[in-house]
Amino acid sequence: MQIRPATGQDLDVFVDTLHAAFGLFPETPVDGGGLWWSALETDRCLLASTADGRPVGTAATYSFELTLPGGAVVPAGGLTAVGVLPTHRRQGVLSALMRQHLADLRARGESVAVLLSSEAPIYGRFGYGPATYTSKLTLTRGKAALAVPRARGEAPAPETGSVEVVRRDGCGDLLEEVYDRYRRTQPGALSRPHRWWELRAGQPPLSPAPRYIAVHRDADGAPDGYASYAVEAGTLTVDEIIATDDAVFTALVRYVLGHDLVSEVVLRHVPADHPLRWQLADFRAAEVSGVTDWLWVRLLDVSGALTARGWSVDGELVLDVDDPFLGEQGRYLLTVRDGKADCAPTDRAPDLSLDIRDLGSLYLGGTAPSTLVRAGHVTAHRPGAAALADALFRTERAPHCLHWF
């Protein structure tokens, strides 16, 4: 078996092999693009072939930027389009593709790898762990009145700005600019490269699917948020709300809740810690469902990744990290002072022992170390180690990712 990079002439073969792996047929091209694979970076696609040259497996990588706690933005390789023909499963094809994928990321200097997992059991063995979570919120329109409380003794904050409704076809540049500002402030968010918007690759509001866009503008008329939505059979479904602050998010929710001839509003992606439910006059008017993992993270350079993110408290922690897939093990002294970390090899006794996949889950602050200790994934070697790790890895804002790839 051979693993090789794809070329520009291989795109059709790559797409056909990927679809055959899942028993699907490629979509018919449409005017204006919109095929989800049209944003694939051919030079970052891998083909697995038999000795006689027959393609049997695929994997591809997108070049993203990932926003970390503290506001740093780092390159991240996004794994996608992974498939192996049914005739060649359980023959080491996927493992070979994954080894080459991770080697290519390291060669590019990318210390963080990310993916969205179609099946949760698969990618833990390759060192990925779930790192962000999302949920669906269904609001019964007749009951879901917003009644934002004000602090004791204070007048309600005046609403500023305005909302206008446009069609998706006429506002691509605006959406791209607003999303880019948002993702730079949200831990766990990924960039959406310009080619995604240009080729309309992915899910709404990138794809050509018809959508209305509620654009929020600040008091000076500058766009600072949007909601992408469609209405069908009395249900208004919001693909995503992108807002630069909570007040803009609330204004956009107020808009969709005020839509005529709608019995319920569904918000497809809401962060776990979002305050929206507390802003409702009736807390039970919002039903949470579809709580699931979203972005999975794998670290390829433990020291580099840990020093790149920001930290909220000072402290020292010795981490013994096992990477069974790559056959690596390291012990690191993590020292945090004034929001910055130093991470260096050490021979000191460990405070925590953990698998590289679990460190990926902890990395963005979306999973507490003590949770993984209680689950039996992480071993704490001294009293108080888990509590210290909780304090160190905790973030002011829960990580969240909206981007589908």
UniProtKB/TrEMBL annotation:
GO molecular function, one term: aminoglycoside N-acetyltransferase activity
Claim: Signal is one of the keywords in the record: no
Domain N-acetyltransferase stretches: 1-152
Gene3D superfamilies: 3.40.630.30, SCP2 sterol-binding domain
PROSITE patterns, per the entry: GNAT
BP terms from Gene Ontology: aminoglycoside antibiotic catabolic process
Pfam families in UniProt: Acetyltransf_17, Acetyltransf_9, SCP2_2
Keyword match DNA repair: no
CDD domains named in the record: NAT_SF (cd04301)
Annotated binding of acetyl-CoA, by residue: 82-84, 90-95, 118-119
Keyword field: Acyltransferase, Transferase
Domain of life: Bacteria
Active site as annotated: 123, 405
Subunit structure: Homohexamer; trimer of dimers.
HAMAP family named in the record: Eis (MF_01812)
Family: Belongs to the acetyltransferase Eis family.
Protein name as it appears in the record: GNAT family N-acetyltransferase
